[in-house]
Amino acid sequence: MAFTLPELPYSYDALEPHFDQETMEIHHSRHHQTYVNSLNAALEGSELSGLAVDEVITKLDQVPAEKRTAVRNHGGGHSNHSFFWKNLKIGTTLSGDLKAAIEKDFGSFETFQQQFEKAATTVFGSGWAWLVKKDAALKIVTTHNQDSPLMGEAVAGTSGFPIIGLDVWEHAYYLKYRNKRPDYIKAYWEVVNWDEASRRYKQSS
Amino acid sequence: MSTTLVKNSALRSALRPTAPTAAKRAALTLTATRGKATLPDLPYDYGALEPAISGKIMELHHSKHHNTYVTSYNAASEKMAEAVQKGDITAQIATQPLINFHGGGHTNHTLFWENLAPKSSGGGEPPSGPLGQSIDKHFGSLDAMKENFNAALAGIQGSGWAWLVQDNQTGALQIKTYANQDPVVGQFHPVLGIDAWEHAYYLQYENRKAEYFKNIWDVINWKAADKRFK
To answer: I need a surface site. Which of A59, A98, A173, B203 has the fewest CB within 10 A?
Structure first.
C-alpha cells in the first residue's frame, strides 16, 4: 500500500498574504510530492509500507541499513509536511488548556513566542522548529533536515509529541521572504492553527 | 567597457553601504579591525553569469547571504576573543559552532565567487594542464567527473556543498560533500565548489535543482581551480 500526498484542507492562496500562493503550491505539489514518491520507492516491498508514516519513522531501526537514510529523509519529509499543512489556518485563537499550559511552562505567551522565534531563527541550514509535549511539559525543540521529534532522541537528537511546528528550509519562504527568515517566522504567528494545536495537545495527554 | 565597470562598481558600492572602499579597507586592516572579515568584491557584475545563474540570485547571494556570514563571523569572533581573554573555556566552546558556521560560510562563498566566471572571461572552458590530466586520471574524463559531482550534489540532504578536493598527502582528487557551511579542512584542500543550498538557485530553478547543477558548469572558472591544484 503506497503513501499518497494528502490534499490540503484549503486552497493554495488561503494563507495569503502571510504564506504566498506560489510557495504553497510548489511546497505541496512538488516538494512534498517528491518526499512521497521517494518514500514509496525506498519502502517498495517492505512490510513497513503498510504502516502510517508517523509509525514508520519510529521504526527506522527495522529498515535495512542501505535504505535507512532514504526512509529517514523522505519518511520524515512526508510526516513533517502532512503535519504542517494541518498546522496552518488563518484566524484561530490560542485558548483553553493549551494557553494555560504555555503560560505555565514559559511564564507568558510573549516569552514563549520569543523563544520559539529564536529557535527557528538559529537553526543552521535546513530544519524545523517545534513546540512539543514531552514528559507532561511543553518544550521548544529543533530538528535538522527532515528529522521529526517523533523519531526519538537517538535519531533526531530530541523527542516529544509535536503541537506546532515551523518549516525553516529555505524553500518554505524564499520566494516571498528571500533571505529574511525572521520576517517569515513573524508571519507564522498569523497562520498557526491553534485549533489543531489544542486538539493535538488534548490528544497527547 | 571600463566606464561600464566603473558605473556598476559604484552602483554596487552604493548598494552596499557597509562595504568599505579598497583604500578604507587597507586603513581598517592596519588598525582596530585587524583580522576582521570583509565581504570581497565580485570580479564580475551580478548579471554576468546569466543565463546559468540569474543576476537577482547573484545579488541576494552576495550582498545579503554572504554579507551576513561576514558580519556574523565578526561578531562571533569578537565574542570568542573576549572569552579567550577571560579564560572562559565554556564560553569559547559555546561560541565555536557560530565560528564554524559563519566562518565556514564566509570561506566557502569567497572560494565560490572565485571559481565562477562569465563565459566571456573563460567560464565553462575546460581545465588543461596538470588539473585536467589529474581529472582524467581519477575519473576517466571531465564529463565523468561532472556526472559524479552532480550525483553528489543531488544526494545532499538539506543544505550543503559539493567540492572537488585534493588530498594533502597523496595529491589525489576526490569529490566530497559537506553539510551546512562546513569548510574543507584537514586532510583535504578545496579545488572547486558548488553551493547546493536552496538560496543558491531557488528564485530561478525552484525545486528543479538538477537543472541548476547541469547549467552551472557553463560558468565554472577552471582557471581558479587550476591555481588551487598542487
So the answer is: A59
B-chain CB neighbours of A126 within 8 Å are 157-159, 198
Nearest to A179 among B65, B158, B206 (CB): B65
Which residue in B158, B160, B199 is closest to A174 by CB distance? Answer: B199
φ, ψ (nearest 5 deg) of residue A6: -70, 145
Residue A37, chain B, CB below 8 Å: the answer is: no
**pTM: predicted TM-score of the whole model, two decimal places:** 0.90
Please check whether the domain covering A21-86 is classified as CATH 1.10.287.990: yes
Quick: pLDDT tens for B49-73: 999 999 999 999 999 999 999 999 9
A38: contact with B, CB 8 A cutoff: no
C-alpha cell at position A36? 512521497
Domain with CATH 3.55.40.20 in chain A: 96-204
Work out the pLDDT band at B12, boundaries 50, 70, 90: low
Residues counted in chain B = 230
User: Per the structure block, which three cell numbers stand in for A129?
Assistant: 522548529
Task: With a cut of 50, list the residues of chain A below it in pLDDT.
Answer: none
CATH code at A96-204: 3.55.40.20
Contacts of A26 in chain B (CB under 8 A): 206-207
In chain B, whose CA is at the least distance from the CA of A172? Answer: B198
* Kind of pairing between the strands at A127-134 and A137-144: antiparallel
In a domain? residue B33:
no
How many beta carbons lie within 10 A of that of residue A149, not counting itself? 26
Q: Return d(Cα A181, Cα A12) in angstroms, integer.
A: 21
Q: What is the ipTM metric for this complex? A: 0.95
DSSP B45: -
Residue contact B207–A170, C-beta within 8 A = no
From the list B108, B98, B196, the residue with the least C-alpha distance to B154 is B196
Q: What is the DSSP string of B178-221?
A: EETT----TTEEEEEEEE-SGGGTHHHHTT-HHHHHHHGGGGB-
Q: Return the CATH number at B206.
A: 3.55.40.20
pLDDT tens digits, residue range B189-218? 999 999 999 999 999 999 999 999 999 999
Chain CA centroid to CA B26, Å: 23
